[in-house]
Every structure is written in C-alpha cells, then in structure tokens.
Amino acid sequence: MDAATLQLDYVSSGDLSGQSASWWDSVLGVVGFERAPRIDLSQVPVTASMTPWLGGAEDLCEVWRVAGGQDIELSTGLLERGRVHYRYCDELLFGSVTIEEQGFDGNASAALLSATMAAYQDIFAVLKETRHRHLLRVWNYLPEINREADGDERYRHFNSARQSAFRSSGRSTVGSVPAASALGSPAGSPISIYFLASLEPPQMIENPRQISAYHYPPKFGKHSPIFSRACVLSESAGTNLFVSGTASIVGHETLHHGDVTAQTRETLANIEALLGEANRIVGAGRYALDELKFKVYVRQPSDLGAIEDALFATLPATASIVYLQADVCREDLLVEIEATGDSPRN
Ligand code: 3EB
Questions:
Q1: Is the CB of 195 within 6 Å of ligand 1?
Q2: Ligand 1 atom, smallest distance to 220 CA
Q3: Burial class (CB in 10 A: 0-12, 13-18, 19+), 70
C-alpha cells in the first residue's frame, strides 16, 4: 500500500469552491483564519483560528490533505466525539474543537480552566479510540490571552489546565509532548484548538538556544507550557517537520523589548537553530529555511512592514508566508513565527 503524504496548502475560500470531489476526498481538514469558510461537504472538519489575516480582503484558508496514490483512504462521514470533529487515514488524523467558556460554571478563571480541560479530554478520547496516539502538532487560540482573570493572566490559567489534562490522561508532560502554538484571538471568540496526530511516534526536537518550555521557571507561570519546540514525522514523506510558535526568546528570557525588527531576526535565528537540530537528528541537509512555509503572528498590524523587511533580509521573495494578527502569549513579544517543512521520506 502507498504511504500517505501530508500536504499543506493555503487556498482562498473562493478557490475552495472550485475543487473537485476527488480533491475533497483527500482533505483531512480546513482552517479558516478570521472565520470558518462556508463549505457544504459534511465529511471534512472545518474550523477557524479567529485570528484576522493581514494579507487582503479575501478569506484565506489552510488546507491539510493527504496525497500519495490511489490507495489512500480517508474516513467518511463527519466524525464527532464530544466537541471534536475529525478525519483520518491510516497514518494521520486531523481534528478541531471549539468551545465557549460561557458554557462553564464558576468565576472567569474556573470557566477557562474547565473549558480547556474539556477540550483536551475530548481530544485525548478521540486519539484513544482511533489508534492515532501521538499528538504531533496543536494550535491553540484563546480569546484575550494576555487579559487578567482572578489574579493571573489567562494564558497562565490555560497552561495550568493544559498540563492538568495531559496528566490526568496519563500522558507525559516533558519530552514527548507535541509541537504547538498558543495565540490570542479577539474578545468574544470561542477557544479554538486544532491538531494533527499520527499512528507512528514523531521525533521531538528542542532548541539548543532555548530552555525547553516545559522546563520554564515558575516566574512564567506556576504550570509550564506543555510543548516541544518542533517535531519530525520521519516515517512520512511530504510535510513532516512541524516548528512550534517561535519567538524572540533565548534561554527563557524575552530579548529585544519594543524592537520588532530585532525580535523578528532573533526568531529566525531560533528557527535556524531548530532546523540545524532537525537535520542533525534525521540526517543532514533535509530542511532549509528558504523552503519552509511560515505563519507569522503580528501583535500590532502597524509592525507588519518592519517584520516583512526583517524577514526578506534573510528569506527569498518567493518564500511562503502568511501574516495573521494575534496577541502573543507574553506581553513583551511583538511577533511569533511558526513553520512547516517538507522532505522526502527520511
Ligand atoms: C515561547 O517560546 C513563546 O503555550 O503552546 C510558543 C509556542 C509559545 C507554543 C504554547 C507558547 C506555546 O514560550 C510562546
């Protein structure tokens, strides 16, 4: 049987409607940015990060699909468990969950904790059921991530709940934890989480320039954020490198307060360090900075020009870059960049 090859495309919502039925048969999931695209095909999970695209008027979508031969069969019908919508093939699973904090009892922080735990519990229940045990990559979007609730930042409450959900499902909270991003969405948005999981375990990658996030000291929150800096699914061809949200952090400290150009350069240096580690671990020279697909989260839209200038000082004009407006999970960070990489089977 052919192996599935994961493929990531950025497609306008207008172009989505022109796709053939056989193309849709290969789609694992669709992510809109500011809003979910209207799609009538009930078998595909469709979600949105709720973070506005800074690229223009048209809606852009992120499409995850599997190519690689006639034999690749995806699950059919819309699969739902708890609040998770998901679709899968033998090797890979895409899922999404949106959840409103307002539906949970207690004060503001208790509702956020309960909603986050419920979302992760539903995710882990899906993975248990489908055999795709290994979380590769998680995208977390939390309304008003930097706002204070009951004496602590909402991001820190989120970290407590995420860690607690990993623990209570018997999962490790260090080492083999997924690559992730955590960003802020506008007030009134639901919590939106989407993820990729796999049958085979990925290879986790840490950044030699940074302390692992799961080992951050308590001054960044009582419970550390649970994510790896990157991971590689080395058994699969196609999109198989997942770089977590990366920022201007060295060791565990934010560098270049108030200087978005320097923050962008430092962030690229971190991504290059991760690529070096990925190439060292899976075999030299597989991934190149020039060939990654980037998603750039910009706190202040007025910084967009400076960020672009800093990126194109290093990247070619043909680089794949999507810019989104989002609050970053430390108040002093002005930009965060995530990436994916492709390679033949390692
Ligand atoms: C950092 O390096 C920046 O909480 O899941 C980046 C990626 C960040 C993921 C998360 C947080 C997360 O600490 C913030």
A1: no
A2: 13
A3: exposed
